[in-house]
Design brief:
Blueprint lengths: L5 E7 L6 H17 L4 E3 L11 H7 L7 H13 L2 E10 L5 E8 L5 E6 L5 E3 L5 E3 L11 E5 L2 E5 L8 H9 L2 E5 L6 H19 L2 E4 L3 E3 L5 E3 L3 E3 L5 E4 L5 E7 L2 H9 L2 H4 L3 E3 L10 E3 L4
Parallel strand pairs: 1-2, 2-3, 9-10, 10-11
Antiparallel strand pairs: 1-16, 3-4, 4-5, 6-7, 8-9, 11-14, 12-13, 14-15, 17-18
Length: about 290
Amino acid sequence: MTDNIFTAAMVQMRTGLLPEPSLEQGTRLIREAAAQGAKYVLTPEVSNMMQLNRKALFEHLASEEDDKSLKAYRALAAELKIHLHIGSLALRYSPEKAVNRSFLIGPEGNLLASYDKIHMFDIDLPGGESYRESANYQPGETAVISDLPWGRIGLTICYDVRFPALYRALAEAGASFLTVPSAFTRKTGEAHWHTLLRARAIETGCFVFAAAQAGLHENKRETFGHSLIIDPWGEILAEGGVEPGVVLAEIDPAKVETARKTIPSLQHGRRFGIADPKAGPEHLHLVRGSA
């Protein structure tokens, strides 16, 4: 299956307050990745702008149909003849809500799939950091899987990574690759980034592609960086630092089958219940496992 091997690239960005300079940064790094042989390129979450101020965010939001960044990235994918995966764009959903939407673009500039982030980052961190993503964004409701020339790919975004049932469902639906474009905070990244992403790879026997935002942004938010490419055994194939740049690795899809044959946990999932001894056996709580 050596003819099925391809190069994947994670574009690590430091998105700004406005879409135009962020597009310039993304375009430059995507071109750099393609020049190094990447056939699949992933950018981070909110590749077009990082705005914490609601008024400023909605002033610069566009609908999917009108968004200039999406149009430019579609043209770039067609020019470079690559599968370009824009980790997400902040787009207008309604007068009151935005949407955090990922786009998989084919080498003809065609939209292969889109995914709206399901899990909202509503968090109060030690030290005073607080985020209420649900105040501005409409959550998605549907998991998304799509086809690449090398296998199926499951689309997720950032905070989704803390909900392993989503990744198992994507793997059971045939995904060989899982994507986690992110804008992790430095604090949560230092604590959990590597562990969560390696766990998702090991649990599913999938490659995990995680392009990240990195560094101190114009909005004063600090993101963790360390974009990762992880193989189905949980080994880190490539890792970024804390500056914008490109991280590449050679991907052999045959490793998915090898990992799943070695530890076939996807086949071993069972339905089970949780018994409450205090309530008696008639109060068995059913839990949906794998069929």
